[in-house]
Amino acid sequence: MYYDSIVTENKEIASAIWHLKLKTKKTLKAKPGQFINLRVSETLVPFLRKPFSIFDATANTVEVIYKVTGEGTKLLSGKKKGEALNFLGPLGNTYPEVPKGFKKVILVGGGTGIASLHFLAKKLKKKGIKVIQGARNKSCVIHKKKFEEYQGVIATEDGSCGTKGFVTEILKTQLKDNTLIYACGPEQMLFAIQKLAGTKKNVKVLGAFEAYMGCGLGACLSCVIEVKTPKGTENVRVCKEGPVFDVEKIVFSGPRGN
User: Quick check: bond before 96 cis, omega within 30?
Assistant: First the structure.
């Protein structure tokens, strides 16, 4: 569904990372893990809408976190309070409910991937969850105080905030048998988390994947990834069949780092 919205807030909250809040007249029904495809300009540049994970939402509001990386997001950062923006959504599938048999729930977000998990953290707060946020350095940490409400801890690559290293450094100390992990971030990070999950019994990783989404509706096939099936492998669309997948079933294509 298409929504016309008004910017109520658009501010920089970390290094080149912005928090956008929109208000709509039509009722919005969003779930954790979903995203919106936002039109950032009335011109042909950029030509395509931009996908953003939903950070938070109510019946008439939606919030996203984005990093200024190119012309489209640079234009978006210039939007002022009261300006109109149109978006398509909510799109994609949600994070599944916590299955029976899991005694601990951990949320792991890398970079702006943590935005997708905030909406989920609000829903699962009463379950005693723990949130791990990974960032390059202190200036890139997103809403530190807000995530402290969910037992949030931080790992930075240079050690300028929290634990020095990657999110897996903290996850190693927290991971136990019968743990469910919700994660969102670069494919390399998701691969490292899945590898670590194999060191314990009954650990499942449900990850929201980041991919270039041209249309957000599954028609353009720009966000295809490969998944394992009983008969081999097949290609699926992140925007339509995802963005949340059982990470164990993903065929990873990127570098295998930490």
Answer: no
Pairing of strands 104-110, 179-185: parallel
The residue ranges of DSSP E strands in 42-169, in sequence order, are 50-57, 61-67, 84-91, 104-110, 130-135, 152-156, 163-164
Quickly count: other Cβ atoms within 10 Å of residue 110's Cβ: 24
Query: In percent, how much of the chain has pLDDT > 90?
Result: 82
Decide if 137 contacts 157 (C-beta within 8 A): yes
Answer for the pair 59, 27: CB distance below 8 angstroms, yes or no.
yes
Nearest-5° angle of CA 75, CA 67, CA 239? 95
Beta pairing partners, 133? 109, 154
* pTM given for the model: 0.93
Residues 6+ apart with CB under 8 A from 105: 98, 124, 127, 128, 129, 130, 179, 180, 181, 182
Across the chain, mean pLDDT equals: 92
Q: How many Å apart are CA 49 and CA 181, to the nearest integer?
A: 30
The 10s digit of each residue's pLDDT in 171-186 is 999 999 999 999 999 9
Domain finish residue from 60, 91, 122: 91
What is the span of the domain harbouring residue 194?
Answer: 104-249
Residue 227's CB: how many other CB atoms inside 10 A?
16
> Residue 166: which CATH number?
3.40.50.80
Q: pLDDT of 1-58, one tens digit each? A: 899 999 999 999 999 999 999 999 999 999 999 999 999 887 766 777 899 999 999 9
